[in-house]
Amino acid sequence: MTRRAVIVVCDSLRRDLIAPDVAPTLSALMAEACAFRAFRGVFPSTTRTSSASIATGCLPGTHGLLGNTMALDEGAGLVCRSVGDPDFRERMRRATGRTLRVPTLAQRLADHGGAVIMSNVSPGAAYFHDPDGWGWVYHRAGSYGPGLVPETGERHLAIRIGAEGDRTMTARFCDEMLRRRRPAVATLWLSEPDHTGHAEPLGSPAHRAAIRAADDRVAEVLATVDELAREGEDILFVACSDHGMETTRRTIDATGRLVAAGLKTAPDSSDIVLAPNGTGAVIYAAPEAQDRRDALRRFLEGEDWVGRVFAGGELASLGLPVDGPVLLALTTAADLAPNAHGVPGHADIVADPESAKSYDGFGQHGGLGIHEQSPFLVIRGGGFATARATAMPASLVDIAPTVLRHLGHETAGMDGRPLPLEPPPISPP
Length: 429
Ligand SMILES: [Zn+2]
Fold this sequence. Notes:
- The structure is a single chain.
- 28% of the residues lie in helices and 24% in strands.
- The chain has helices at residues 24-32, 47-56, 60-63, 88-96, 105-108, 123-127, 163-181, 194-197, 205-230, 254-260, 293-301, 313-318, 399-407; strands spanning 3-10, 34-36, 39-40, 69-73, 78-82, 115-119, 136-138, 144-145, 149-150, 185-190, 234-240, 246-252, 272-277, 280-285, 306-311, 326-332, 334-338, 344-350, 363-364, 377-380, 388-390, 394-395.
- The chain has an eight-stranded mixed sheet with strand order 7-6-10-1-11-20-2-21, with helices on both faces. It has a four-stranded mixed sheet with strand order 17-18-12-19, with no helix packed on it.
- Zinc ion (ZN) is lined by residues 12, 47, 194, 198, 365.
């Protein structure tokens, strides 16, 4: 029997927003399949880091992609760059000699059935699923096959971000990838409800419609998987989100605050570089500024927009590197107050000087807030228990090893581990 894995990611969908009225397919799936109710994301809880973590089974400190933005030294000192830009992976390769430091699923499976991803999120998030071109990546900014050979013409994925593009992409995913090409791992990464959640209040009619649209896409993939299962395929089906969202409370010019406090020379100086990641931030230091760590920490811990500061060994517990230029990381202050639509959880965000968009009152993520760290994970097939809900710890980095075990491959070198087929059930109250 052919073994395959199919992964669907509903970007940003919070576990607590999956309800029968707005997400009937996922609600039913959570009840009928194996639902991991303590599933967590990585830090920073951004789509680009999450994409690399799902692909490698490793934490950001291990794979090396440290946020939606990160500092690189391209020869003239540390500069903060957006990982979302299509040219970031080339910049990273030139600055560090490589892209990700560990193999992706696409690399591990290149000679074993291969991997395909169709993604409608940012170019950086799509490309960091398979940055070196071991498999196929389909994205509106450019599609590539093995060796990063462009997929052009009809083979390119010419869609727009949002629900309509997700719909077009899903139809092609089911027909071409699942029914015809049949790679060992096929991943579909929907832009909703993330795209709408960043532009509308969480729980608003528009946001709920975006959740419903993502749920409809999951239903289409499930129907195709069921059809293939009836033909005798042994398919591990994984549906998840990469992180959740909090409602933005205030936007803070954190870099300006550091400059005003005398802890950074100028907004664009390379001594101390703060990489904004929504409700989180990573602070890098040039070698001559590493001794500012304690002063920075004291300053940040006195700021009302800062939730928690991490330094030294605490960075390792967050899954960040402890060697190199990363000096500190922070998650912003948060509260549990509901927004106007009854969705709980607000957090301050760190301003991104490269982005003019305002997120105030809308969804954002990147830190360690309760809701942004409560994505969902449900697994069906591959021998997983049915009608099972478990509270055992599980993380984004467990997806890749779980997929590899199903396909009969080694999982050495991963931070995650294959999830048990029979996880302990949540005991009845
Ligand atoms: Zn997002």
